[in-house]
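Fig. S4 source data, part A: sequence.
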Amino acid sequence: MISIIIPCYNAEKTIIRAISSLENTSFNDYEIIVVNDGSTDNSRQLIEDYSKTHQRVKLINQKNSGVTISISNGIRHASGEYLTFLDSDDFVDFDYLSRVNNELNGRDILELSYRLVDTEGKLLQTNIKQKQEFNTPDDMKQLINKLYFDNHSFSGFKYVSIYKWTKVIKTDIVLKILNEYEKENFTLYEDMCFILLSVANASSLKISDYCGVNYVQQAKTHSRSHQTSYEDLLKLRQKLNSFLDVYCKTYQLDRSVFDTIDFDVSKFYFSRYIKSHSFKESKLFFKNMKNDDGYKYGQKLTNPKGESFKRKIYCFLLKHNCFLLIYLTFKYL
């Protein structure tokens, strides 16, 4: 059985589409676990009504606790041999579960390709992974040594994406790392924590070029925004670095693999900070960031070679401190 976990927060407009897309399949050995994270809209009622006529759909209600607790809660209620995840505003192709089941073949982790679509489902971009297999502990050791940055690429997770919803993972592995994942309780980068821990505890992994997940480009609805201040960014970075220090020591990894983490987190955080803050606030944030030693060190190491055109442009603007162009891009585009 495959258990699909969907964290849901105020997703009344999309949650039924997400659930029903999983049910439009020829594969029937699955369950859908929707974790309602204290939604204040009509999400709960919609899911309850839907589950009355769809027995494979289970609803778990909890007070608003964030995506980490939602995911953990869903995992603890799962019955399947394998777990996968879906955001409440995303959806899958009709043959998704049957294709996934055929590709697993006993592996610990299956990594899938995916599409980026708009809110109407129109294709924006297709992300096809190069097919690869890692079938021994030695293979997996080599993978986790280059998992985050290979030659300090601008985008993390070049081989295996940062997203949980591109993974199908044996439940035994997830249960092994669940307490550590839940203890960290990241408000941002919880995906990274989850993926790093999962891959480090797996013995085999397959990267597939099958593209069955449709990732909707809009503000996600399974949690609340936490891009609030420069001080909060520093706290996040400190927490991530503490986690990575322990992670590298535990799994005997070279800590330099993560030397660009401060820059990567900062540029991600800043691009989202702009969307909800004024020009003056954003300019002050940028001033603090560009004078930050950790940020500057990671920036020097970062190489955008092989990245998308948009990422190359963003990297160029950051390296040349072009605040106005960055602000206009993320505020209005």
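Fig. S4 source data, part B ends here. The beta strands are 2-8, 30-37, 57-62, 82-85, 91-92, 109-117, 123-127, 132-134, 167-170, 205-216.
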